[in-house]
Amino acid sequence: MTDVVVVESPAKAKTINKYLGQDFTVLASFGHVRDLPPKDGSVRPEEDFAMDWSAEDRGEKQVSAIAKALRGARNLYLATDPDREGEAISWHVQEMLREKGALKGVQVHRITFNEITKRAVQHALAHPRDLDTPLIEAYLARRALDYLVGFTLSPVLWRKLPGSRSAGRVQSVALRLICEREAEIEIFRAREYWTVEGRFLTAAAAPFSARLTHLDGKKLEQFDLPDEASALRARAAVEAGRFSVASVEKKRSRRNPPPPFTTSTLQQESSRKLGFGAQQTMRLAQQLYEGVEMQGETVGLITYMRTDGVQMAREAVAAIRDHVKASFGPDYIPPAPREYSSKAKNAQEAHEAIRPTDVRRTPEEVARFLNPEQRRLYELVWKRAVASQMQSAELDQTVVDLADAGGRARLRANGSVIAFDGFLKLYREDVDDAPAGAASGEEDDTRTLPPMREKDPAKLTAAQADQHFTQPPPRYSEASLVKKMEELGIGRPSTYASILQTLQDRDYVKLDKRRFIPEDRGRLVTAFLVNFFERYVDTGFTATLEEQLDDISGGRAEWRAVMRAFWRDFNAAIAATKDLTISAVIDALDEELGPHFFPQPAEGGDPRACPACGPTGHGGRLGLRLGRNGAFIGCSNYPECRHTRPLSVTGAEAEGEAALAGGIKELGPDPVSGAPVTLRRGPYGLYVQLGEGGTDAKGKPTKPKRASLARGMDPDALDLERALALLALPRIIGLHPETGEEISAAIGRFGPYVKMGSIYKSLDRDDDVLTLGINRAVALLADAKAKVRGLGPHPKDGEAVEIKRGRFGPYAQHGSIVASLPRALTMEEITLDQAVMLLAEKGKKLPPKGAKKAPAKGKAPAKTKAAPKAATAAEEADGAPVKKPAAKKAPAKTDAEKAPAKKAAPKKATAAKPKAAAADKAATPKKPARAKA
To answer: Which residues are paired to 76 by β-bridges?
Structure first.
């Protein structure tokens, strides 16, 4: 008789099952087993926020498996993740089991562990607790808030701003931060300033450089040399002077190591140092936490990766200090263990920081068991945790002031030398968001000055004046946006990765060179929310709401009271938009975003003047318009003037705007058909068109052949030859040198791509779809993801187990059994053992091809009368028997013509006489149709 342990993932279940042995059955819930149904009424504020929960097939199946395993068991251990979501999953599992009557005679325990090691799991089993009610209530409040905001605000957005996707409680605030930063960049005006620098030699002929800080007795501020003329005058003053050392100041400074990683700092540093996105970082961290195969054993390498805490367990600190002493020597250990506390707003330090489960597993030792991405992330976590308990670095900083004998100019030279490297021997934290070309921290640390003493002469060898311009604030990267959200107390670090991904999936923002740029759709949504729901996208309001949720989880607030206060004001704000017209919305957004969509041209004039009808004297003005597919720019003289353009016109498209002022640009005649080839602008961008269409043999209109321009194509440089090449796509590039398969190139919905069989690969920005060669195509396809990956034979029957890429994500297949892969597993990472376990636990049988779906229980299949089918030309040509069309029924008699007759009751047909029954039914007279007077 075994006890049952429930965890979240199958990988974790497999690892823990090895630790516990035959006395325990370890099952996975596969994350959440039920959720709020995505429909109105799942949360009912009028019933004091009552909620309806429903389980999908997967959740129902997993809980049924747990219920089956509990037969005869005495204890159920809920061992889901040690956070709010994990507590909620345990509560959902318990509630569903109670509804099934599976908990009679079973003791339910909640256990948590911060690392998946045998010692930690056994310690958790020995110290169980009850479910944390305040933590569950905080989850309920958060889930209800997100549901009510999403399902109440999003429909308003759809109705008042067609083309918008959704609005979320934290998502909308993050989008506002990105849009406001972009607005700051757009209004930024660079300011010129100059600096003067001299190059000197000491008496010992050692070179160094110094910057001018004082001129004519005045300290120079940033903009005191605003132009070249003033800078040249300052340089002349330096060149005319005779300099000596006025003062030498030396001091020693200490640099302390950073604390071990939290969720947000791991995402930030992983983005900066490794180039990993937040989603990728969390996926890799999940794999390292759940365990990897090492010498026949599954080992969890890092502690739980969703945490706000920066402290580590005493045993871990002691082990790290021992490792530092053995590896680097006693000089690298501080006298006492370092203790850290989080500075982030709303931080919850209930869990440890992210650290290696065993510091003795160095990155070099475990590298051969990890893929390259896992290895790099583990090395980052390991080094940061070890460095956090190392001695501070010591730097000798030197400041030398040079003065000219005449007293006109004064220059300063700075330098620093690492006197003791301390933690820098192992780990250096990069400068956050350093602009291109800026010196790194490492360069600053090692910039040395030659030995100098006061009154030593300094010989000027050269002087130069350098021009500079102030820089706009940088766009947010994933790292800096996560940092900003954490500083403001918006959302939770564990949710940041999914929020940033949602913004990209909704086409509200895009990542370009690892920086967020808002799309025009995102700016429209933000402008709408700021104009009509400003409070609910305010950073202060959102942070205060997070504090209230923390009060609920700490037992300091009642969750329904928090919900009542929120809903009262939020519902009133929604009601206030009831009479808001779309035209009023468009007018407000047109005024708000006018400077963005209609920037002032450098040559002057009205930025809103219509390029199509403006020259004709009609004076049309451009403005924001709204259509079925969303917003666009249109002319006020519509329908007389039909000039339109998409919201964003950038790069090469903007350059071609003048050529398309009339809407069409002639490129020349097609050499085959003689039809004109033209460049045009449609609602979805620029395209080329062959001819004007016509009519077919039956007189129906036919559409002309068209082809979109690939992103980055210059419309001004487009000639007839390239236009014809676009119209001829797709084109055959050649045959693959190894497989012999045909490779083609084309432009699809998401841009230009190459294709070989079922494998597709998008082209890079520098690739030309019209000239791409076979070598480049083969190289691109080598990095493409195949749609099928074979894992090997199934251990039971030897039939192949494959991973396939489907419409809704990757899935495993064995014969006719299929199972979707959980989000934590990718198509490239899943092993044969994992796939076999997945198919056994959640596999479903595919229906045979061509099989009809069974009707729902309790409902008879509806009888439909098939319409007579006309014979096709192919059937007639093949000599197939052609069914004659049914004879037309005689017209119904009028009341005057029809003699009144008593209707006989129809006889019930028996199964023994189906033909007679059918005949009776056919002979039954039908009620005549009557026409109303």
So the answer is: 4, 108
* Sheet of 800-806, strands arranged across: 788-793, 800-806, 809-814, 817-820, 844-845
3-state secondary structure of 835: helix
pLDDT tens sequence across 466-505: 999 999 999 999 889 988 988 888 877 778 888 888 898 8
Distance separating alpha carbons of residues 785 and 830, to the nearest angstrom: 14
301-324 burial by CB neighbour count: b if 16+ within 10 A, else e?
Answer: bbbbbbbbbbbbeeebbebbbebb
DSSP string computed for 455-482: T-EEEEEEEEEEEEE--PPPPPPHHHHH
Work out the average pLDDT over 617-639. Answer: 75
How far apart CA 270 and CA 283 sit, in angstroms, is 12
pLDDT at 456 over 70: yes
Residue 498 three-state SS? helix
Helix 10-20 to helix 278-290 angle (10° resolution) is 20
* Count of other CB atoms within 10 angstroms of residue 335: 5
pTM: 0.62
Question: What ranges in 161-221 are assigned the alpha helix state H?
Answer: 171-187
Helix, strand or coil, per DSSP, at residue 331: helix
Catalytic residue among 19, 193, 304, 536: 304
Closest CA to 174 of 548, 457, 478, 433: 478
Largest CA distance in the chain: 135
Contact indicator for 174, 481 with CB cutoff of 8 Å: yes
pLDDT at 343: 66
With beta carbons less than 8 A apart as the criterion, state whether 307 and 352 touch: yes
Mean pLDDT of 344-367: 79
Position 430 confidence tier, pLDDT thresholds 50, 70, 90 = low
Best CA proximity match to 91, nearest among 51, 120, 146 = 51
3-state secondary structure of 156: helix
Token pair belonging to 277: 């996105």
Dihedral sign for Cα 690, 692, 695, 700, please.
positive
Query: 789, 781, 871: which is closest to 825 by C-alpha?
Result: 789
- 684 tagged catalytic: no
Enumerate residues 6+ apart whose C-beta is below 8 A from 670. 676, 677, 690, 691, 724
Q: Rounded to whole angstroms, how far apart are CA atoms 881 and 884?
A: 9
In this structure, how many other beta carbons lie within 10 angstroms of the beta carbon of residue 381?
Answer: 25
pLDDT surpasses 50 at 864: no
| Per-residue three-class SS string for 77-133 | EECCCCCHHHHHHHHHHHHHHHHCCCCCCCEEEECCCCCCCHHHHHHHHHCCECCCH
Report the mean per-residue pLDDT for the chain: 81
CA angle 227, 233, 236 (to 5 degrees): 140
Quote the pLDDT of residue 128: 92
Q: Is 802 helix (H, G, I), strand (E, B) or coil?
A: strand
Separation CA 326–CA 87 (nearest Å): 40
Please, which residues have CB within 8 angstroms of residue 638's CB and are 6 or more apart in sequence? 625
Domains and CATH numbers, the chain: 3-131 (3.40.50.140), 141-188+474-583 (1.10.460.10), 192-256+394-469 (2.70.20.10), 263-391 (1.10.290.10), 729-782 (no CATH), 788-845 (no CATH)
- Measured from the Cβ of residue 621, the count of other Cβ atoms closer than 10 Å reads 15
Give tens-digit pLDDT for 736-776. Answer: 888 888 999 998 877 889 988 878 888 887 788 888 888 88
Instruction: Look up residue 121 and give its two tokens.
Output: 């799991």
Q: Note the pLDDT tens digit of each residue in 196-244.
A: 999 999 988 899 999 999 999 899 999 999 999 999 999 999 999 999 9
Beta strands at 788-793 and 243-255: parallel, antiparallel or unpaired: unpaired
